[in-house]
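Here's my example:
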Amino acid sequence: MLAGYAVNVQRSRGRRFPESPHPYRNDFQRDRDRVIHARAFRRLEAKTQVFTRRYSDHFRNRLTHTIEVAQITRTIAAALHLNVDLAEALALVHDIGHPPFGHAGEKSLDAVMRSHGSFFDHNLHALRIVEDFEQRYAAFRGLNLTFEVREGIVKHSRDYSSADHPELAEYLLVQRPPLEAQLVDWTDEIGYCTADLDDGFESHLLTLPQIRGGVPVFDRFFRKVENTYPDAPEKLQFNEALKLVFNRLAGDLIENTQARIQQEGIQTLADIRESKTRLAGFSAEVESERSQIKQFLYDHLYYSPSLAGEKDDAERIVTELFAFWLENPSALPQNYRDKAGQEALPRVVCDYIAGMTDHFIIEQHEKYCGGNNFHSAQIPQTRLQT
């Protein structure tokens, strides 16, 4: 049963282009399915999360990360009696706007756009994907998703002002997003914080003593696991400790969000929208633990010397290709050349690059810019490759 403050699909604000009801799926279920069948969703399989495939096929990519976040989101939304269909659709679409090469690609794409007086924002790019770029239907451009899903794409992780973004005015920018959208920002954090510890350990870029010394909550649970399973292999002890960290984050998100709802006297969706602050989130103690995990990952994994060369190469590839197509727009595919007659060329080139997979952008760089794309790096043997 839905809580009074959950989004009821029967009260959806609907789609931009009206459609007849489906005989056995509600509108949020249809949105979820449209995201899954989108080309941009499939391309996530070949976009970097943290590790490129040069390390191993075992590590997460954008697609597997997205699937994990969707699982976490479904579980927590159900525990809070929220609309699981809407929450799942938002989790599945939350990273669809990311460019190739992970955060390195996003950073470089934003930098080149700022040199032309604009910017790159993966949330807003995701909105462009579902509203315009995906072409699957004869009756309209885009996926024609419900208002609630489009609103959640825009607002799940940050607030936008109507003064800075008048084009987003329809998305109720002065109001809070529903809890289904608020949750995704935190389930994303749970997903990548625990998964990146796992992949970092598997890659040998993070050692067990290093993790235990830098992540106190992990060390506390690892000591408990050692007492319970003293003869288990180190990797299985690691897995058990990480599972306990995961459960602590997820359980606290449920309990603390429930507590905030009760403290604020929230009864309806309107109460959520008019709340002074976002209500989904961790307790102060667990938020501190989450911040420690995230800082540890930044210090020891994301900016690891072993990954620095690939990040530099990724930024170089994006920057050089962007410059090439600005100087040679005739080399763009026909549909992007057509768009250049309607929109600024830097934005058109940005859109083209953002939609690429890692391997396709490497092919394009080899074709148009020449030379080797990636430097020779020493790749550590992973624990899984036995």
